[in-house]
Amino acid sequence: MTNQQPSAEGVPADAMRRLAELTPGRPGSLFTSDLSVNEFLLVREAGFKPIGLVLGSSIYHVGIQLGRWGKNQELTTLSQAMYHARELAMTRMEAEAAALGADGIVGVRLTVEAREFGNDIAEFIAIGTAVKADAPPPGGGTWRNLKGQPFTSDLSGQDFWTLIRAGYAPLGMVMGTCVYHIAHQKMGAVLSNMGRNVEIEQFTQALYDARELAMARMQTEAEALQAEGVVGVQLNAHNHRWGGHTTEFFSIGTAVRPLRPDHEIERPTMVLSLDG
């Protein structure tokens, strides 16, 4: 599963005209943002100016998955579809931010909405606020990531402010997904477990494997960005419309790096007051 470079391809002409009106420095230009008032002020305090709301969308048809339903297995066709659809939405959002000359996108929300066009069609939406830094990073260079893309972050305004103040910078949102089929229990096993407290090891192992695959793929994306770590990780389970024995595990977080190679987090000094 590979990242795609953001470009204007796939971004509607109406969106490009809207972005042209938001271009910083243009007479009469104003910014749009879905940040709350508190988040807006904290992002400004961190040294970043919101310049426009950016979004990406992909309506995606999920193909047919063939397999042996009597065993635990990843449904690779579905995994690839869910990953690719999200990536299309993310890269289109990044393309809008690049068109604005943004250094990054904060407060990103990545959602999936079912559509009435069919049971195998869904819309993937990425939306966030593009920002421009007041100054280069303290350690020099650029706020953009190693691929030359505006950074993306789903951290709240408060967490973003804390991250910057602590000497770290976001590189990008990283994600991993795994759609997994959990085999049905055989009738003999069902009958033998009736009335007893007992772990269903087959189910435990299936869910464990699926989570691990999603997490490993997210970590691989972070390593490609040369991140020091991933913060704010969320690991969610979605059933979508694939049936009771099929589930998707989706992990997502923000990859970060220190602003200076020799960076150390400053810890508050404890002061003791002794009376008498």
From TrEMBL:
InterPro entries documented for this protein: UPF0145_dom_sf (IPR035439), UPF0145_YbjQ-like (IPR002765)
Transmembrane spans: none
Family annotation (Pfam families): YbjQ_1
Superkingdom: Bacteria
Matching SUPFAM superfamilies: YbjQ-like
Membership in a protein family: Belongs to the UPF0145 family.
PANTHER family: UPF0145 PROTEIN SCO3412, UPF0145 PROTEIN YBJQ
Protein name per Swiss-Prot or TrEMBL: Uncharacterized conserved protein YbjQ, UPF0145 family
Taxonomic source organism: Actinacidiphila rubida
